[in-house]
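Section 5: illustrative case.
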């Protein structure tokens, strides 16, 4: 009995809150500042990534991008070697 009353009141509260939040979060008063903050955060992240890459490069160490390029090249070489091995096996057999 108590649980049913609690459940009904909670459901009513949840619906009212969801309706209010939906209206509020669609408001330009919320979206514009949030968009501005997100843009600023992404610019700061980009600047941080560039500074980090420059720092690693100044030490003569490979950056993440350099490592990814090298890994891609190694994967291509491995694939070519496997193809050549298959061709040799098919000619032998």
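Designed sequence:
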């Amino acid at each position: 009995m108590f649980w049913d009353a609690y459940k009904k009141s909670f459901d009513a509260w949840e619906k009212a809150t969801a309706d209010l939040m939906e209206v509020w979060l669609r408001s330009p008063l919320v979206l514009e500042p949030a968009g501005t903050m997100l843009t600023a955060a992404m610019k700061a992240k980009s600047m941080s990534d560039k500074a980090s890459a420059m720092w690693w490069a100044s030490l003569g160490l490979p950056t993440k991008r350099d490592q990814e390029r090298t890994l891609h090249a190694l994967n291509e070489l491995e694939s070519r070697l496997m193809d050549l091995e298959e061709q040799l096996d098919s000619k032998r057999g």
